[in-house]
Design brief:
The complex is a heterodimer of chains A (509) and B (144). Chain A is mainly alpha-helical. Chain A has helices at 2-20, 26-45, 58-73, 77-80, 82-90, 104-115, 118-131, 134-159, 173-184, 186-226, 238-253, 258-285, 290-302, 310-326, 332-337, 345-352, 354-373, 386-395, 401-432, 436-455, 458-471, 473-499; strands at residues 48-51, 54-57, 162-163, 169-170. Chain A has one domain (2-499): Amino acid/polyamine transporter I (Up-down Bundle). In chain B, 49% of the residues lie in helices and 22% in strands. Chain B has five helices and five strands, in the order βαβαβαβααβ. Chain B has a five-stranded parallel beta sheet, sandwiched between helices. In chain B, β1 (4-8), α1 and β2 (32-40) form a beta-alpha-beta unit. The relative contact order of chain B is 0.22. Classes of the chains: A mainly alpha (509), B alpha/beta (144).
Chain lengths: 509, 144
């Protein structure tokens, strides 16, 4: 305990030293210092080539091509396994002997609380604004294809996880890239190691970027928006907000006060349900506009008028925001899913299908419909003002909802940070080994980036965040291609057992 | 078919009357006796990534603690009295899990102690006893 105290004191000291030179626009200083690096990283990852006048980043093509190949290779498993996935989540096949272990439901719920968040609220608003209603169509399609990527990576995550002697579990792309490829043949094993290290480096970056700075930045932006906007007293106090959040996150990840995280993990699902319900109410009360909205979505998807980049521009916006929201192909969720207790890794893959489904096809579509129906989308919107736009859309129908939305945004941001701090830590300890020093070093860095993220402005945070998270997809999906036969074998064996009735159903009805 | 009894216990010394009652009956009928403890747990709770990663370890700890502190002392005591006794510990919903354990072990009489739950609490949340009786698949004896 006393060791923890020392660490905490040191931490608060470090964070406190920020406030010393706070009085003279520290936000701006941090922004100027970090921006060139953030931009350089973003430009590398988002290496683009022109298609029909629109610069298409290679990484996006990489994600969509992989998701499409996986979908065809597994013969539309994303549709075929939906019914069985639901049965698994419900616990129809739970082994009574394994009562007390992590269930499929818990693994899915935990993974979802790391994914559902700002991407669904802010990202969609940006996609619809810049790409028009048609972007929704491509977003849904990307979510549908992403289900296959998620299936693949989560099956592998469970199959190649490491069960430590003390009974804890570590899983995720680091492990399946290193162990899975080595199992195929020794030469591939070498490549697997390289990919695993690359993935881990990007995952650490992603945990500082999209899993942290982006969250701090966007939740602060919404708070400023609600407290008087740019002229409000909070406007230039991003660093102060960052400090508060850093202390809260620090209490959980360094102070070991799991209570805060546990409470958050229980509130977040209810916030998500509240958000979805409010969205459905708005859509329901405007039911007469639903056909027109869907008309605009379909028409806009193929005939983009007045959208920069035409149809390709619309498609790009939809795909980009879907990928950023559900993280399919990125590999992050495989870390969360691999804690499940099951003898058949592929079952977690079937369950993981529901992650992009709920995240993108359900939640993102609801956001998009609300924005389209309330006609609040605005092609001239600044890409960093996504939350505000969604807030405005909900406000036009339910005047007090922005406050609920603000609370939801804060909680989503917080829970995403907690999840990503874990993903990042796992990647970090994969690189540097597991001991007290490396552990604490990572956590302090993580908290530092909370403050940086809240202080930085506009586009540079978003670009850097996107870049680091998407970079994870390069090593992850490349490794997945080599491991596809492994997944297919698992899937076929399980499917045959299921069809032949060799699996014990422990709950009827 | 011989008689098989099972006592549901909360803690090592708060279910004494139920244990005594069951032990007496087991002795008379020369029946096998199970001492069962259920660790309250739901498969549908929300947890953090870290909790999930440590879940297996925690579960092992919970099981061994329940055995060491609750079930085993009772089993040892009754064994020394010459009864045929076995301890069972499992996670889950209390009533449903007691029924499942009874089913798996061919138990034909579940014995539990009255909990003394207040009317209001029982009304709002239900009590183990009433759940057990309502969903009974074998005889359920509630010892006052």
């Amino acid at each position: 305990m006393s060791k923890q105290k020392v660490v905490m004191t040191a931490l608060f000291g470090l964070l406190g030293s920020f406030s010393a030179f706070a009085d003279m626009g520290i936000d701006e200083k941090i922004n100027i210092a970090i921006k060139p690096y953030a931009d350089a990283v973003a430009n590398t990852v988002f290496y683009s080539f022109p298609v029909g006048g629109v610069a298409i980043p290679f990484v996006l093509v990489w994600l969509i091509v992989a998701a499409s190949i996986f979908t065809v290779y597994f013969r539309f498993i994303n549709l075929r396994a939906m019914k069985h996935g639901l049965q698994l989540v419900r616990g129809d096949y739970n082994d009574p002997e394994a009562a007390g272990e992590v269930t499929h439901f818990q693994a899915l719920a935990t993974a979802l609380s790391g994914t559902v968040g700002l991407g669904n609220i802010a990202g969609v608003a940006v996609a619809v604004s810049l790409g028009g209603p048609g972007a929704t169509f491509w977003m849904i399609l990307a979510g549908f294809l992403g289900m296959s990527s998620k299936f693949t990576e989560c099956t592998l995550g469970v199959k190649y996880r490491l069960e430590h002697e003390d009974g804890t579990v570590s899983g995720g792309p680091m492990y399946y890239l290193a162990r899975g490829l080595a199992e195929r043949n020794p030469l591939l094993g070498k490549l697997g190691k390289v990919l695993a290290v690359m993935f881990a480096i990007f995952a650490v970056g992603g945990s500082f970027g999209g899993g942290n700075m982006f969250q701090a930045n966007q939740s602060f932006a919404q708070l400023v928006n609600m407290t008087g906007g740019d002229t409000g007293w909070l406007a230039d106090k991003g660093w102060a907000y960052g400090l508060v959040i850093a202390v809260l996150v620090g209490l959980v990840i360094i102070g070991g006060i799991q209570g805060i995280a546990r409470v958050t993990s229980k509130i977040v699902p209810f916030m998500a349900i509240t958000y979805v319900t409010a969205g459905l109410i708005i859509i329901g009360t405007n039911y007469q506009h639903i056909p027109a909205a869907f008309g605009a979505i379909i028409a806009g998807a193929f005939t983009a008028k007045g959208i920069s980049g035409g149809v390709i521009g619309v498609l790009f916006q939809g795909f980009k925001r879907a990928a950023f929201s559900n993280e399919a192909g990125v590999g992050s969720a495989a870390i969360a899913h691999s804690a499940v207790k099951t003898k058949r890794p592929v079952t977690e893959g079937f369950v993981a299908l529901y992650e992009p489904f709920i995240d993108t096809i359900v939640v993102c579509t609801i956001t998009a419909l609300v924005i389209i129906i309330t006609n609040t989308w605005d092609p001239s919107v600044d890409p960093s003002a996504g939350v505000q736009l969604t807030s405005k859309a909900f406000e036009s129908e339910i005047s007090w909802f922005p406050w609920v939305l603000t609370l939801a945004v804060l909680l989503f941001a917080f829970s995403t940070m907690i999840s990503w701090s874990y993903y990042g830590l796992k990647a970090w300890t994969f690189l540097f080994g597991e001991n007290r020093f490396t552990d604490t070093a990572y956590k302090i860095l993580f908290l530092f980036f909370v403050v940086v993220g809240a202080s930085m402005q506009l586009g540079s945070v978003i670009d850097f965040s996107d870049a680091m998270i998407f970079a994870m997809a390069f090593p992850n999906l490349l490794g997945c291609y080599f491991l596809l036969p492994v997944v297919k074998k698992e899937m076929n064996e399980y499917w045959a057992d299921l069809k032949a009735g060799r699996l014990v159903k422990t709950r009827v009805g | 078919m011989g008689s098989v009894l099972m006592v549901g216990v909360d803690c090592s010394d708060c279910s004494n009357r139920a244990i005594d009652y069951a032990a007496e009956h087991a002795r008379q009928a020369d029946a096998k006796l199970f001492i069962a403890h259920v660790i309250e747990w739901s498969p549908y709770t929300f947890s953090t990534v870290e909790e999930n990663a440590e879940r297996h370890k925690r579960r092992e700890q919970e099981l061994s603690r329940a055995h060491a502190e609750i079930v085993d002392p009772i089993v040892d005591r009754l064994k020394s009295e010459g009864l045929s006794v076995e301890g069972l510990v499992r996670h889950g919903h209390v009533a449903a899990t007691l029924h499942a354990l009874a089913r798996e072990n061919g138990v034909n009489n579940i014995v539990i102690g009255r909990q003394g739950t207040s009317m209001l609490k029982a009304h709002l949340f239900g009590s183990v006893g009433s759940h057990l009786v309502q969903t009974a698949e074998c005889a359920v004896t509630v010892v006052p």
